[in-house]
Amino acid sequence: MAQHFENELDGLKQKLLAMASHAETAVNQAIQALVERNYELALQVRQNDKVLDRFEIEIDDLAIHLLAKAPLASDLRLITVAMKISQNLERVGDEAGKIANRARDLSQEAPLKQVVDLPRMASLAVQMLKRALDSFVNQDAAAARALIPQDKEVDLLNKQIHRELAHQMIEDHETIARCLHLMVVSKSLERIADHATNVAEEVVYLCEAQDIRHTGKAG
Amino acid sequence: MTEIKDISSSNLEATSSTAAISVRDLSVFFGDHQVLKQVSLDVLPRSVTAIIGPSGCGKSTFLRSLNRMHELVPTARMEGEIRLFGSDIYGRGVEPVIVRRRVGMVFQKSNPFPTMSIADNVTVGLRLNGIRQRATLLERMEQSLVMAALWEEVKDRLHAPAVSLSGGQQQRLCIARALAVQPEVLLMDEPASALDPLATAKIEDLILELKKQYTIVIVTHNMQQAARMSDHTAFFYLGELIEYGPTAKIFTSPTNKRTEDYVTGRFG
After folding, report:
1. Do the Cβ atoms of B264 and A74 come within 8 Å?
2. Contacts 24+ apart (CB under 8 A), B254-257
3. Cα A184 to Cα A192: distance, rounded to the nearest angstrom
C-alpha cells in the first residue's frame, strides 16, 4: 500500500493513544483531587479538559481525511473505531471535569464521613478504563470482552452509593449539599465505566469485525 | 480451498440448484501452463459478482471460460464443469456460439464495429441469428439502447457512425449490442477502466439497473468500484480462488489474510 497512507494511519493510532493517556491522567487526577481535598489539582483538571477536546477534533479531521481515500477492511474499521473511541475519551474527560468541579467545591467545606464504597467504585472505573485502553493498544479482543461484565458491578455500586447518601441526607440535613456533590461524583464514575465499556466493544469490532453493542453480554 | 468451504460451503450447497452459473473444479491450461486451479463457486442469478485480484491471477481467464471465449486461444484446455442454469456449457454437442449468445461479453476497450452505424451495431447480432423482420429489429434495437441508457442520446442519429460516439457512449453501445440478443448473463471485463469518472459513474449506474434482469459477472481492478456495485466478490490469486463471499464482508472483514492484504493495498 502507499507508504504515505500507512504513515497517516499510524499517525492516527498514535494520536488516539496520546488522547487515551491524557484521559486516564484526567480521571486519576480528578479522583486524587477529591480524596486529597486538593483545590489546585481540581482546577488543573478543569483546565486540561481543553486538551482532550482538541484531540477529538484533530482525530475526527484526520479520520475524515483518511476516509476520503476509501480504505477497506481493517483500515476502514480502525478509522471508524478511532472516531468512536475519541468521542468516548472526550466524554471521559468531561466526566473527570465534573468530578474535579465537585472536588474543588468539597475541598472548601468540612469533610464528610467517608462513603465506604466511593473509593472502590473509583478504583473499578479507573481500572476498567485502563484495561479498555490497553486492549486497544494490544489489539486484544479477549481482554476487551473480559472487562465488559464489570460495568454491571459499577452500576450496582452507583445505586448503593446513592441510597447511602440519600439516607445520610435524611439523617443530617446539614450534609445535603456535600452529599449531592458526591452523588454527582458517583454518577460520573458510573459514566466513565460506561465509556470504558464502549471502548471495549469498539476494540472487539476492530479486532474481530463483530458488533457486540447492545447485546447485553460480552459476546 | 479450505477458506471457500468455511465461508461459502452453505452458499455452494444450498444454492447450486438455483445458481445462474455453477463452476466446479475448473482448471484452465494454456499449453503446459496452468492458469486456473480447481476453482469452484456459484454465481447467483440477477446479481453482480465482482472478480478481483492482482494482475496475472487468472481473473480474465476465469471470465472468458464462462462463455468459452478462452477457446479462441489455440493451446487452451479446460478441466472441470461449468453449468449455466443447470446446463453443462462444455457438454458434448454444445456449440460455443450458442453459449456466447446466452452469455454475452463486454470488453475493457469498447469495440463497436467501426464501419457500421449505431443502429447496425446493435442489430448485427440479431441479423446473424436470422432475424430479418424490420419491425422486430427496430423494436429490439430501441429496447436494447433504452436498457443501455443510451437511447435518449442517440435516437436522433441512429445512422451516424458508431465511432462518432464518445468513449463512454461507445461502451454503452457495446452493452446494448450484447443485450440485443437477449442473453441470460453478461460478462464485463473492466468495462469502465478506459473511461473518465463521469462515464464510469454512468456505466456503474447502468450495471445496477441491469442486474434487476440479468446476471452480471465483472472483472475489475477498482476495489471501490467492486464495493459500490457488486453483491458478491471473488478474490483470485495465482490462479486460485482464495475467498468468495458477500461483498460487504470481503471489503470490511475478509477471513483470509491474503484477501485482507490485497484489499488494503498491502500487496498486489
Report:
1. yes
2. B254/A73, B255/B3, B255/B6, B255/B7, B256/B3
3. 12
Report yes or no for ipTM above 0.95: no
- For chain A, give the percent of residues with pLDDT over 70: 96
Contact call for residues A61 and A18 (beta carbons, < 8 A)? no
Chain A hits for B265, CB-CB cut-off 8 Å, are 1-2, 5
Which residue from B minimizes the CA distance to A71? B264
pLDDT confidence band for A212 (50 / 70 / 90): very high
Summarised one tens digit per residue, pLDDT across range B36-78 is 999 999 999 999 999 999 999 999 999 999 999 988 898 999 9
CA–CA min distance A114, chain B (Å): 50
Task: Provide, rounded to the nearest whole percent, the portion of chain B with pLDDT above 70.
Answer: 93
Q: Check whether B264 has a pLDDT greater than 70.
A: yes
- A133 to each of A82, B54, B180, how far by Cα in Å? 12, 37, 60
- Which residues from A are below 8 Å from B264, CB to CB? 1, 71-75
Q: Contact B264/A209, CB-based, under 8 Å?
A: no
Give the B window 204-233 contacts with A, CB below 8 Å: 223-224, 227
Residue among A5, A73, A208 minimizing CB distance to B254:
A73
Nine cell digits for residue B27: 482448471
Q: What is the pLDDT of residues B180-210, one digit of tens each?
A: 999 999 999 999 988 888 888 889 999 999 9
Q: Which of A66, A72, A78, A139 is the best substitution to test chain B (most B C-beta atoms within 10 A)?
A: A72
CB–CB of B251 and A1 under 8 A? Answer: no
Cα–Cα distance, B257 to B268 (Å, whole number): 13
pLDDT higher than 50, residue B14: no
**Whole-number mean pLDDT of chain B?**
90
Considering only the beta carbons, identify the residue of B224, B227, B264 that sits closest to A75: B264
Closest chain A residue to the Cα of B264, Cα to Cα: A72
Count other Cβ atoms within 10 Å, centred on residue B197. 8
Mean pLDDT of chain A, nearest integer = 93
Could you tell me which of B172, B234, B176 has the C-alpha nearest to residue B205?
B172
**Shortest Cα distance from B254 to chain A (angstroms)?**
7
Calpha distance A98→B6 (Å, rounded) = 50
CB B49 within 8 A of CB B232: yes
CA angle B16, B17, B21 (to 5 degrees): 55
pTM of the model: 0.82
Distance CA(A161)–CA(A115), nearest Å, equals 7
Nearest to A25 by CA among A54, A58, A52, A56: A52
